[in-house]
Please model this.
Amino acid sequence: MLRSILSAALIGAGAIPLYSQGPALPVKYEELTAPEFVQALKASQDTVLIPCGVLEKHGTHLPLGTDMLAVRELAVRAAQREYAVVFPHYFFSQIFEARHQPGTIAYSETLIWQVLQETCDELARNGFRKILLVNGHGGNTNFLTYFCQAQLAKRRDYAVFLYQGLGVQDPEIEKLRKSGGGYHAEEMETSNMMAIRPELAHPERAGQESGADQKRLSLPGLYTGIWWYASYPNHYSGDASVATKRLGELALDKGVEALAKTLKTLKADTSTLALQKEFHDRSDKPSGQR
Ligand SMILES: [Zn+2]
Model:
């Protein structure tokens, strides 16, 4: 019998009672049985999230998989609130700038593209029509934006979206912050790990290396790949020593709420796929020839 047709009260440990009514399907892709997968497609309105993480140094105080663990946790919690399927831990991301640090897995630019494209293709072959990339790794932003743009290169029966609601400033969160910011393994990211995996976060070790901008390159108006290494050779930016679990919990709650809201909008959307079809119909015959 399908677990999903049982009421939440009857379900044993490990199942996730998602709604007051309706199915109690796992949101984690790898926890669905094949028959449940078919139900999950329907319950999610063909929507799946790929939480994009990476394996890279996070100062001296956070684990290599910080982005991967944090973004998956966010995605899972949001999908539990607004049902969607969440792809397993994913770490095929752009991270050349940390190759000099222990533990970094920097796949080639062609491989990360291909793995992501084939993952999307396979998800679509299985019935998903809306694929939401939730990026947990700053070094991936340009890659993922371009990946979404490039999806228009050919006709597809699915659409790829990139979640843009992360990192939005919130006055309540800002009030709790003690440091002046930073970009990597800093107060916010460390607080987040203290909230989700406290045993893996060691803010007391944060001072072992400097997270200050080394300012070794000054080329206003120019972008070049070595900029990050020039500023932050320790692959740490900010001050994590002031991180708190409370800040992490607040930010996670707000992040889950915002992502769940976006998920609801995405699930209801019918315009994107219709516009994609219209676009490709026109692109195939741009002069309107029959
Ligand atoms: Zn990170």
